[in-house]
Amino acid sequence: MERATASGRLRVVALIDRLGTTGGAEKLAMQLAMRLDPERFDRVLCATRWPHSHEPIELSDGPRRALAEAGVRFLGLGRRSSLRVDRWRPLVTLLRRERTDILHAHKFGSNVWGVALGRATGVPVIVTHEHTWSFDGKPLRRLLDRELVARFGDAHIAVSRADRERMISVERIPPDAIVHLPNGIPTPPPLSGHDVRAELGIAADAPLLGVVGVTRPQKALSVLVRAAAELAPRFPGLRVLIVGDGPEEERERVRSLAHELGLGEVVRLLGLRFDVPDVLAALDVAVSSSDYEGSPLAVMEYMAAARPIVATRVGGVPDLIDDGAEGRLVPPRDPSALAKAIAELLGDRPRALAMGERARARRSRDSDIAVTVARLAELYERLARERGIRPGRRRPGRRARPVNHR
């Protein structure tokens, strides 16, 4: 039986835990919702751990204002605890009483809830999106990912080839259930001209390293701090900037380690900033010391800023950078290897600048958000056709979607 949309557009409900202020998955979920063609898609974004949508949009609430300006409807569930199952009611109401053609969930928790609620309410197409495969030592998560998320959804998105390979080899998810959709970022805004070094009291010729991202254990910032301890005697005036918010306990661990190693004046945690392009422009080397990654937006931002990059060889990072061409790749959890690669770039400025320019050209060619959005739109429309959804025709009664038995 054919199912049709009344408005001529496919209604897509995106499901994520928080709005895109810091985390890469949150930023990407917002960008995808905002950049889908409004002539083809009616877009709703539901943030499960954000205040209720009836609260007024404050001037400081940049993400919600950006959604409103892009014509994306926002629904906030205000969940403060996993036990507050009642907080799902507004989303269930939306899925049941209003036409929803596609439910697109982002990250593991939302993937599980999205599949369960989408199946229960008869949403025809369910897309799940894993932004970083990190299920080592988590057998229950792997079981749910395989037997619930991948089995009962219509497409399970992996953001890197490495993630897709682990889903197949470790989780034993059938290959045809997984769609490889690389991340992308928009072209960064022009620089404001603000002198970040002058603001922070850092000399113009001081060696300056930096990392941008959520300060959580995955980012292995302790490895960067230990590498800085090896570099400081060789590079007088060295400074390390850590930009991003995150759990206070992790930030305190990084501060404590820096003080323990005598780097209290070297390592600076700047917290959340909204002038990241200006910060990146001030760096001599941008660093990613993560234990694992999917397809990291921060590395793409480094590339777009033409920064020399040193990153750990994890997840989808090798899809973005060839070692020795656009940057240097090193093993994870090896402070000495990280320090050695950084020292190479600090000691050879022309080579470092050439790497940065190659990185910028590659990001522009391979990792633009417009390409990601176009591929996602094609996926939505293909799945809709397969489920008999025809935009612009009269809609028959709602029917439950058949189970995907893989």
Can you characterise this structure?
The chain has helices at 24-35, 62-69, 89-97, 108-121, 139-152, 161-169, 196-200, 221-231, 248-260, 276-282, 297-304, 317-320, 335-347, 349-366, 369-386; strands spanning 3-5, 10-16, 41-47, 73-76, 102-106, 125-130, 155-158, 178-180, 208-212, 239-243, 267-271, 285-288, 309-312, 328-330, 389-391. Mean pLDDT is 91; it is low at 394-406. The chain starts with a strand and ends in a 15-residue tail after the last strand. It contains 15 helices and 15 strands. With 406 residues, it is of the alpha/beta class.
What Rg do the Cα atoms give? 22 Å
Residues in helices, as a percent range: 40-55%
Which structural class best describes the helix and strand composition?
alpha/beta
What is the tally of beta strands?
A: 15
Which overall shape is indicated by the principal axes computed on the Cα atoms? elongated
Poorly predicted runs of 5 or more residues: 394-406
Distance between the termini: 22 Å
Q: State the strand order across the main sheet.
A: 4-3-2-5-6-7-8
Q: What's the overall average pLDDT, rounded?
A: 91
- Write the element-wise H/E pattern from the N-terminal end onward: EEHEHEHEHEHEHEHEHEHEHEHEHEHHHE
Number of helices: 15
Indicate the topology.
Blueprint: E1 3-5, E2 10-16, H1 24-35, E3 41-47, H2 62-69, E4 73-76, H3 89-97, E5 102-106, H4 108-121, E6 125-130, H5 139-152, E7 155-158, H6 161-169, E8 178-180, H7 196-200, E9 208-212, H8 221-231, E10 239-243, H9 248-260, E11 267-271, H10 276-282, E12 285-288, H11 297-304, E13 309-312, H12 317-320, E14 328-330, H13 335-347, H14 349-366, H15 369-386, E15 389-391
Parallel strand pairs: 1-15, 2-3, 2-5, 3-4, 5-6, 6-7, 7-8, 9-10, 9-12, 10-11, 12-13, 13-14
Helix pairs in contact: 4-5, 8-9, 8-13, 11-14
